[in-house]
Write a structure and sequence with these properties.
With about 300 residues, this protein is α/β, with parallel strands linked by helices. The protein has helices at about 15-25, 50-55, 75-90, 100-110, 120-130, 135-145, 155-170, 200-215, 220-230, 245-250, 255-275, 295-305, and strands spanning about 5-10, 30, 60, 95-100, 115, 170, 190-195, 285-290. Among the domains are: about 115-170, no CATH class; about 200-270, Crystal structure of tRNA isopentenylpyrophosphate transferase (bh2366) domain (Helix Hairpins, Orthogonal Bundle), CATH 1.10.287.890.
């Protein structure tokens, strides 16, 4: 009856495997909450589910977009809202799983600002980001209005891009904006968050996963994407960690050792930012990493289902 469960946590913390355990024991269907897994052919670098997993479990919002297409949080909120309704109609429960924290936060709480991005707006933003680095962009905006930038990390290209969108684009009609799932009182929403206290273990897991991605063909995957779609680091899909660094390797700007190091460090920095999001969510059940206490978690879910 209108249950929604959300499983969040940093990259490499075991969200996917845990989601399949839950789907084996409850009537869950999995909704992707990782921005870059929405793109077709971005498989290795996003640690996308295997063909067997796609066959055996119901998934949504994987492989929806071509690699040269754009997507935003407004699109995501619209797509997920529709999927949730479809899942409930069939008597199943949605399990939203991923690490794109801002997308999930705004799905739950509503879009604070929803903007209409024209082709001209997109071209201007691409031009600005190609001509200036994040530090220069943030410095320029802070000179205009300091409060717009003081919470944005200089390495967070996604939030820099979103800031440019807010400044350049036209705001949509508020009547058509996503109000947030929490405001729809018909839903019983439970947030499960994988909390990490042993960060050294997580760092080691990230390092091993990065090496595995390179060993299993990440470079070839990016070479094919670049060739067939004429992609560059200006395309949204190629801003994903693992892909932007591999583009540099393909263009001979870094060597193989630098590739491994840069992906590992960037992923560790991402995980650190993802962990800080736990203070912004209304967490109903924290899951300790790396030992997921599945017995108590399943008991909690059973008791929470209305």
């Amino acid at each position: 009856m209108n249950n929604i469960f959300v499983l969040l946590g940093p990259t490499a913390s075991g969200k996917s495997n845990l989601s399949y355990q839950l789907a084996d024991n409850f009537d869950f269907e999995i909704i992707n909450a990782d921005l870059f897994s929405i793109y077709k052919y971005l498989n290795i670098g996003t640690a996308k589910p295997s063909k067997d997993k796609f066959k055996n479990y119901k998934h949504y919002l994987f492989d929806k977009l071509e690699p040269d297409e754009q997507y935003n949080v407004s699109n995501y909120c619209f797509d997920v809202s529709k999927i949730i309704n479809d899942i409930h109609i069939r008597g199943k429960m949605p399990l939203i799983v991923g690490g794109s924290m801002m997308y999930v936060f705004q799905l739950l709480n509503g879009l604070s600002n929803d903007y209409e991005l024209s082709d001209g707006d997109s071209n201007l933003i691409n031009f600005i980001q190609s001509k200036y680095n994040n530090k220069q962009i943030l410095k320029s905006i802070s000179d205009y209005r300091l409060e717009l930038t003081y919470k944005i990390d200089v390495n967070d290209s996604y939030r820099v891009e979103k800031l440019l969108e807010r400044l350049i684009s036209k705001e949509k009609n508020p009547q058509h904006s996503h109000k947030g799932l929490y405001r729809l009182q018909k839903y019983n929403i439970k947030i499960l968050f994988i909390d990490v206290f042993d960060r050294e273990t997580l760092k080691e897991s990230i390092k091993k996963r990065t090496q595995k991605m390179i060993d299993t063909g990440l470079i070839g995957e990016v070479e094919n994407l670049k060739k067939y779609y004429n992609l560059s680091d200006k395309n949204q899909s190629m801003k994903a960690i693992g892909y932007k660094e591999t583009l540099k390797y393909i263009d001979k700007k870094i060597d193989i050792n630098e590739l491994l190091t840069s992906i590992t460090v960037a992923t560790q920095q991402l995980a650190k930012r993802q962990i800080t999001w736990k203070n912004k969510f209304k967490i109903n059940y924290p899951i300790m990493y790396p030992k997921h206490d599945y017995v108590n978690l399943s008991k909690y879910i059973s008791q929470s289902i209305k």
